[in-house]
Design a protein that fits this description.
Number of strands: 2
Strand order of the largest sheet: 1-2
Distance between the termini: 36 Å
Largest sheet: 2 strands, antiparallel
Low-confidence stretches: none
Number of helices: 2
Helix content: 25-40%
Radius of gyration: 14 Å
């Protein structure tokens, strides 16, 4: 578990480097994080979205997206 100053440093780094940039790609190193989804479904939902903001609650870092598709997969 990261220490509190580390989490704040990560938040600050994200805010200063990638905030408001369009997501152009991503990698998944462990497919277990997808649970009942797939990489293609995630790619479809993230297409044309961007990181819109960050917040922190204790040691939890939240990263918000704007423009992410809200479609449910069938």
């Amino acid at each position: 578990m990261p220490e509190l100053p580390d989490v704040e440093k990560f938040r600050s780094y994200i805010d200063s480097t990638v905030l408001h940039n369009k997501i152009t790609g991503f990698d998944i190193f462990d497919t277990r994080v997808l649970q009942n989804s797939s990489k293609s479904t995630l790619a479809c939902r993230l297409k044309s979205s961007s990181l819109s903001g960050t917040s922190r609650c204790g040691k939890y870092l939240f990263i918000y997206l704007s423009g992410a598709a809200s479609r449910q997969s069938t």
